[in-house]
Amino acid sequence: MYVKTDILKSEAEDQILDFIAFLRKIRGNFRHTLVFDSKLTSYDNLAQLDADGITFITLRRRGKNMIQEANAIPHSEWKRNTIDTPKRKYKNPLVHDSLIELVGYGKIRQLIMRDNGRENPAFFVTNDYTTDTAAMVQKYPKRWRIENSIEEAISFFNLNALSSPILIKIHFDLVLTMIADTLYYYLAQSLRGFENCDAKKIFRHFIDMPAKIEVKGKEIYIRVVA
After folding, report:
1. The CATH number of the domain where 132 resides is what?
2. What does the DSSP assignment read for 96-154?
3. What pTM was computed for the model?
4. What total number of domains does the chain contain?
5. Does 38 share its domain with 13?
6. How far apart are CA 42 and CA 104, in angstroms?
7. What is the pLDDT of residue 163?
8. pLDDT tens-digit profile of 17-31?
């Protein structure tokens, strides 16, 4: 797991490069497609990723003119694709696949997706020129699963309401949150029929009850009080 809690605003755009350095340190060569949010870096850093041989796909920051240009594309140039994700409501978006020019990067592949349950189309850019459109639109939605985990960490574990402005305590809060989230996940895996439940539901059904807790050395004993 890669976590940093002390990032300055001036350092934010370079975090994607730090992340790649971290992955290469523990895994060696990075051969996967990197999927990340558009706010995580700059177009100049996208060029650096491309120069380093890193394949990526990211959202493009959407502007009013981009939306107008997308709306002006003839219907015949859009292709219906399928996102085969369980429980996804909008599984057949329209996608427009083309090459565009980005300042600070150059020519890059862009996919515009609409009819995806949102008011405005989504704009993706990638340096993967060989994967077909249908396979490409399957890749980015996987990142939204990570966003769901972050949302849970905020709503249930109160990750955005840390106990102290002191940096060492912020690190400690974050580590404890990650540990708690992992423990809830493994508890869910051991409960038949609840394997896919989030921490909030597991807490409501199995944890939120009176109990007596004893700490003896390195062991913790929890006895549920009926």
Report:
1. 3.90.350.10
2. EEEEEEETTTEEEEEEEEESSSSSS-EEEEES--SS-HHHHHHHTHHHHHHHHHHHHHH
3. 0.66
4. 2
5. yes
6. 9
7. 64
8. 888 888 888 877 777
